[in-house]
Amino acid sequence: MITGFQRFTLIARIAFVAVLSIPVLAGVVGVLFPAFGYFPALGSDSFNATGFAQLFAVDGIGVMIGLSLLTGVSATLLATLGALSLLAVFYQSRYLQKIQRLFSPLLVLPHAGVAIALLFILSPSGLVARMVDVLGLTHSSGVTNIYWFFPYDNYGIAITLGLALKELPFILLIALGVLSQPQIARKVHGYYQSASALGYSPSTIFCKTVLPLLYPQIRLPLLAVLAFATANVEIPLLLGSNYPPTLSVAVVQWFNHVDLSMRFMGSAAAVVQLLVTVFALLIWFVSEQGIYRCRHLIYLSGESYIRRGILKTFAYSLCGLYGAMSLAVVYAVLLWSFATYWTFPNLLPDGITTLHWQTAWRGVAPALGNTLLLGIIVSAVALIMTVMTLESETVQIESRWLPMNNRFFVVVLFLPLLVPGVAFLYGLVWFQQRFFPQGEWGPLFVTHLVYVLPYVFISLAVAYRKLDARYIQVAYGMGKTPWQVFRAIKLPMLFNPLLVAFALGLAISFSQYLPTLLSTGGRIPTITTEAVALASGSSYRLTAVYVVLQAILPWLGFLLAWWLPKRFFNPSTQANSVIGNPVYDTKAG
Amino acid sequence: MTLSNSAQAILKYILVSLHLLMFSVIAQAEVVQFHAWGGSAQVNGYLQWVSEQLQKEYGITLHHVKLADTSDAVSRVLAEKAAGNHTNGSVDLIWVNGENFAAMKQHQLLLPNWVSSIPNFTLTNAQKNPAMVTDFGIATEGQEAPWGKASLVFYHNSRLLPTPPRNVHQLLRFSRENPGRFTYPAPTDYLGVSFLKYVLVALNKQHRALLYKPVTERAFKTVSAALWRYLDALHPTMWQQGTHMVRQASALQRLMDSEVLWLSFSFTAAEIPSAVSRFDLPRSTRTYAMDEGSLANVHFLGIPYNAAHRTSALTVVNFLLSPKAQAKKQQLAVWGDATVLDMSLLSERQKEWFNTQQTHPSALSTSTAVPLFAEPHASWTDTLRDAWFKRYGERL
Q1: How far apart are CA A468 and CA A487, in angstroms?
Q2: CATH 3.40.190.10 region(s) of chain B?
């Protein structure tokens, strides 16, 4: 017998699947039609392949496709290898917590923010070039170098670097999330104990026993990262050459072209982008197979000091790199946002001013308001839908019509992350203009929800599923209804992960560039759209202010998520605040 | 005492009500709806000042309708014409130039032959300055009055480049000797096309007349040969060897700020010193104009054919063209928009008004007169852009 509450959770599950799949599929259809020449508003109501013919006649189209593939695959590969070697070397080490902290600045900064921050550090007048000059490592001292490697190189090295730097912390976070699940953590702990007793080093144990267990669990997120990296817009737009750019950037430029007939070619390019992403996934699958076939090499080889040495060096240098990067990002971006004149190659500006913050402050209010309002509403809705959907997993029901099948559900969950934004967002806009021409906030809300939902779900699912079942069984044993169990036991126990998921939702919503821009036609500015606009504006210093804001917003969200439970659910704090003055209670935070 | 007090009170009452009555009549009759782009705080601030002056001197209230895009006002007048509203239009005055003017002229949306009746228009010396009556190569025919002008100015980092190139040939020599220190935006950007036009005009002294007529295939072939030769030589010496080019004009300023570029250019001379004051350009930045001339375009004021308050609108235009209003507009702290008046026709006292402004070391010197190239005929822009893309490839 199903209670009303349980029925409600089942409805929520259907809504969850619908919200994730319908916009994406509708968007893909909306791009397919104009790609094949059907766009009645532009006076074309028959199907043809002119768009594709035009596309393949474009100079350098092959290079564009190649760049998208190359940068996407190599960045994902680098980030994955980096994250795994970090885990191999540091997983059982007590430094793991500290290492995670090194990676957090690049984790909370949105992609656009990372790209801009890298410009501050690595461009010919950036922090690194200044250090090189100050240390006297260059011939033309005191003058910016023109043959500098970064950015806008023709081989996409800058793009690959930007993507890899940004994706590594994310993969690390996902992997650590998986490893913290109780059933996996127990197994891993056992492996480490028995293998250490046999004399293996932690990194060898990781490669031989933990990796085969871990990889299948992080595979789908990795594929999402790969799909994202092949189709990302912000990083190649800000760091890549425009002669030619990656395909994703070209798609955006064609769609934004004043000549509306470019839409046909743009749509065709969006379809090709989808194929490029699929092809990148295929490359990944084939490589996986290749490595799987050769697995005996990994399993059967013994301890190798050389291999261990290489792995260790790699992991330590990654830590060094990220440590230096994080420091440099904070240093450069903060200082630029307060700098007066800053002549090359000085490492400090001539003076400090709050002028740029004042200027930004005057213009930032509407964007900040939009960003917060949207983020809070979207995350709240995503959180409710996620909790209900997770709760529906406990309902015992046999039905052909309900999406209870786990495999199907997981694919749907990752659908918005696997289908490139440039491939479905334009189609979605087409549908929107066709059916809801006046709407701005509605479509904006839906596109953000599409991207926020998967992350909130992934973040919360682990905690939800590992909740100690005994409490729940006891409650049921005492005759409580599912709703009572949910309200009185699950919600309070999950308060902490719920807040973290909410904060993650905020962070994802804050960072959306393309969905925000496209679904509103640029009419509702957010901090991220403003930052990207400013990055192509005339002031480095104002851009720096926006990057700081972009970093602070999600960071504040996570800080609150981390602080609130301690404040309200920590028995010792509560006791203290009753007895003494909580202001002096330093342990509370 | 009481009697005189009450008499005074009555008199006061009568005076006040008379004043109020007069004011309300004026307010009803004399509101001029000025449709003008409202995206710049400096422009909006200047129009605020203009409104106060007009109220004081003529009792006219100027209402600035802040447009996001001038074409909005153009379509509004067009819609009114289509709806048969020929006498009571909602737009009294409009700030236009270029393609918006071309569209309004084509659809006969502007009041014709009124400009010469404006007393202050004579101060622009239009006989000698044909740019005052030509809008992107199209004759204005008295349908719009010049208001201000923008010219392509160059600016350089005087610490790294003490003596900047003074003409188009020296520019190429400079870029050869200092590779990577100059670039221009891809011609999708208006400043990029403007640079091409500048080079085109500067390299074609003998064929210049062709540029002010509608473009033909033959004319284009004749004048473009020198341009392509020039650009073929320039591109490999530019920033990023001319492969990656900036997408927007604003990026040039950023590259100047980071001292990667040593020389750049802009259509708004006033933005250079203002950027230096905001620390967004190095202190050693200096603005100058090329000796051979600068590409210039003028922006204009038009009165729609159906304007409800055309008499007041004419008064407003005359005020906007007065030396006082033009001098105020030219002040860097106000707007920094160059005057359309011919200095030689002004009295010494009026000239003073233009000189009292504080000079900024980075600003364009006002003492040197620079010859101005008018914009080529509007039809050249697209042809030029398309030919460039065909030759050098699209930048996306």
Answers
A1: 16
A2: 2-148+299-358, 153-296+373-392
